[in-house]
Every structure is written in C-alpha cells, then in structure tokens.
Amino acid sequence: MKPAGFDYAVPRTVPETLDALADTARDIKVLAGGQSLILEMHLQRIQPDLVVDINRVTELDRLSVNDGTVEVGALIRHGAFESPQAVPGPLGTLFSRAVVNIAHPPIRVRGTMVGSLAWAHPASEWCAIATALDADILLQGPDGTRQVPASDWFRGPLRTARRPGELITSVRFPLLGADSGVGFIEHRRTHFCFAQVAVAAALTVRGRVIDEARIGLVNCADRPVRAHAAAQALTGADVGSLGTDHRLPDGHPFLRAGRIAAEQDAAPLAEPYADLEYRRHAIAVLVGRTLRQAAEGVPQ
C-alpha cells in the first residue's frame, strides 16, 4: 500500500517548526526517525494532512550533560546510546543495555528516543525507563515552553499529554550516582517481536542495604509502569547473598519484589501467545533477575 496524499514541510528552526504546527484544525504529524509513523502511513491507518519533517532543525540534534542531568534532543538516534560512555555513569550503562533490544540496527540508526516518547507505545523500552527515572519531557508551543514529568506524560496506548501545536524538543533524565547499579532484561517471543515483558531497574545501595529502588515495567499495562509497591518493599532491605548459580536464594527480597510487581503494580492483558497467568509469572521472574543484575553492578 501507499500513503494517502499529504502536504510536507521541512523547517530549519524551532520557530519555523512551531509555525508549521500552528494550524491545529489540520491533522499534523512530526517526522523525526519515522520508524513507526511511516509504516502506519503506508498501511493508511494514519492519514495526516501535513507531515512536518524536523530533521534539518539542527538545534534538536544535541545531547548535553549539565547540573546532574542529561538532556537528549529530539533528533538523537537510538544508536547513539549503544556505547555506555555516551552518558556518564550508571545511566549510560542502563541506556546501552536497553537500546540493543530496540528492533534491529537499521531502525536504531534512524529512530529516536524522543520519537519513542512521542509515540507512547506500551512496549517501548525508553518510555518505561523515562517513567522509572522521573524524566521530564520538554516542549515548546503556542503558549511558550513547559515540561511534563514522565509520570504525567503517558495517557494510554499512543496517547500523551502533548497539546495541539506543541513540539517535543528534548527529554531530561537525572544522572544516577556512583553508588547505583542498573539492570535491563527483556523477554520476547522472537527477535522481531515487541517485548512481551521487559524490566528496567536502578538500585542505590549503601552498605549492602537498599536505599532506593526504581523499577520500570515494559508492556505490563496500557502505558509504562513504575513499580512503586515493589520498590517500597525493597527500601531498607539487605541485598544479602545473590546465589552462585544464577538463581536467587529462596526468600530473597528480589523474589518477593518480583511477585509484588506482578500482582500489585502491573496490569497486563492476555495475548495470543501469553495468557494472563504466564504474563504475571514472566513479570515476577524478570523483575527478580533484573534487580539481581542491578545489584551485581553496585560498586563494592
């Protein structure tokens, strides 16, 4: 199939982009990587009146570190994070572990982190990480600039808090401290499928006691989930022994956190290849494994 007809604008600055987005009576889509948008247009499930291609807006192609945060511009591609040195400290490690799960190399060369946040697919790795780490989405629009915390950004599948005429210019993450460990593990039916379940975790540990846990769940509800109940159960817990055969000892707090995440934090739906019982079991197992991976990365 071919896309339905549409107008096409190629601005070179953010003000020009906002001018192109100003006619809110039209159905307007922003094109950065286009790895989801173009497919939907070819299938004619999306038929915009105007496509605004921001690839020549060079001010959006920036990644900067300032005052304990990293800001990722709207044109920074997935592949920029394949090296853990792209972002300082444990956050760079988390990004590098997550990004290799995103589709395959040609997609990672073109697709963008901010594009994933704009698309808001429940199976997006970046969306869950942003939610778990309290990232802020930065926008410019007809009413000026504003920022929206990730916890308020996602409104459901492919739905966000973006207002008509607004452009997402960047996303800002807090850097993780040197006493943090991170983990990311994904389970999918085949390499070419979306994640059935994935888990992102960041642990701050002091003296083998967990000071803070952040857990993000991928494809475990109609939007990314921050597993607050599971994290609360871990606060103040002793990391203890992590076992020696890649299995956590019985009764370990990470196993308990996995069960809590599956039963209290997640709201999965049954799928053709994964019924509800299977999905909850997978969530519990992956949360435990990801927390173990994070704990193994905490400096001794």
UniProtKB/TrEMBL annotation:
Signal peptide: none annotated. GO terms for molecular function: FAD binding; oxidoreductase activity. Keywords: FAD, Flavoprotein, Oxidoreductase. This is FAD-binding molybdopterin dehydrogenase. Residues 1-178 form the FAD-binding PCMH-type domain. It holds the Pfam family FAD_binding_5. PANTHER family: XANTHINE DEHYDROGENASE SUBUNIT C-RELATED (PTHR42659:SF2). SMART domains: CO_deh_flav_C. It comes from Streptomyces bingchenggensis (strain BCW-1). The keyword tRNA processing does not apply.
